[in-house]
Amino acid sequence: MTRKDAKRSALVLFSGGQDSATCVAWALDRYETVETLGFDYGQRHRVELECRGSFRSAIAGAFPEWAARLGEDHLIDLSVLGSISDTAMTREIEIETAASGLPNTFVPGRNLMFMTIAAAIAYRRGLQVLVGGMCETDFSGYPDCRDDTLKALQVALNLGMDSRFVVETPLMWLDKADTWRLAHQLGGDALVDLVRVETHTCYVGERAELHDWGYGCGECPACRLRKRGYEAYLTGEQVSEPV
Length: 243
Fold this sequence. Notes:
- The protein is α/β, with parallel strands linked by helices.
- The chain has helices at 3-6, 18-28, 47-62, 64-67, 79-83, 110-125, 147-161, 176-198, 221-235; strands at 9-13, 33-40, 70-77, 129-131, 166-168, 210-211, 214-215.
- The strands form 2 sheets. A 5-stranded parallel sheet has the order 3-2-1-4-5, sandwiched between helices.
- Keywords: ATP-binding, Ligase, Metal-binding, Nucleotide-binding, Queuosine biosynthesis, Zinc.
């Protein structure tokens, strides 16, 4: 792939969850080539990683025009992040608010590391657009999900790699109901159902029962937000207040 082609290609941070799956569809609707990137960092809900392959296969089967654009998948071992993180995302501890005021699901440096590694892979493969599902509307206060953080990171990556990467965050100003609506705009009921069934968001990794809004325990913050967003999507309401 030449640098001329790079502006028409993207690398999507794809965890296997609702937001990043929607971003995969968003990128497939816009770019000629879309590759995906996931990270195994010792997350408590690593079942999401098992959803990545099934979602990629399902979206390729349901949308042949996108199948031709779906490129390689990359899975990176980032266990060092889990080994230095004492959080409810990487430890079997109760989810609560930490002394800092942030939820103890916050993994310091996670998105910074993710995007930096994504840029390194994109540089090697000639991809220019980096797509992430970070969101400042339903972001639980995570500082590495803020728009300012991602804009600053884009500048740093371009300076450090002498490149012209574009960091796209299509969900930045959407709430969960809007994210469901975006999936519907991109692929109708078929895509909404793929996101509902083939992705995973539950923090505790529960995947035994399929609810109307998808799999999950139904009690953790991620499940409550996903459920409320889905219900608001069906009724046409908004969901912007924190869980």
